[in-house]
# Entry
Amino acid sequence: MKVTFLGTGTSQGIPIIGSTHPVCLSNDFRDKRLRVSVMITWEKATYVIDCGPDFRQQMLRAKCHQIDGILFTHEHADHTAGLDDIRPFYFRQGDIPMYAHKRVFGELERRFDYIFTTENKYPGAPGVIQYEVKNNEPFQLKGVTVTPINAFHYKLQVFGYRFNDFAYLTDVKTVAHEEREKLKGLKVLVVNALRIEEHVSHFSLQEALEFIEELKPERAYLTHISHLLGFHEEVSKKLPENVFLAYDTLTITI
# Structure
């Protein structure tokens, strides 16, 4: 199984429009972060988690020609706003499978009604197949068991996903004990670390490191990073030996 980090930035990305913050002005390519997303591949399967406003650019950069489905963590724009750009895949493959909480589908149907409508549908609109994700109900994707991880982004429920020995969580602030138990024995954990200071709806760096220390995966990668975390090179030097800052285009093998 391979995981490609399509984007590792927070909702505004890095650099932020108009910002003169030193990290936003950095020349290090690892400090330039599109909105957060990953592509997971194994054998002939390709799945993407989240479909933000940089989706088109990410798919072109990754030279991705087909996807077997999209899993959504939650409905915020930086995770869903690129949905219209599934059209090239739809034109080649037909309806695109999508996996999400029932609430998320409701929000997507409201925002992208022309995709989900069954009446007088515009002929150029893409089509999707909806698969509802429910907590404590693992599901199969081409021979791989996917376990939903229920968490909270402030007061908003979000899903993380475990694929065999790999798990991906973003935009989490609170993870209950029973959900943490689902994350034991991982080879690789990806989790958000927004900035140094605490935040109301995201793990800070310290909170993410404490979460990793509790779960003890073999390796961990930090994502959903803002410019306030600091320069990639400088922060990386201060991390535990099995914890790494992810960056856009990084590919890891599990």
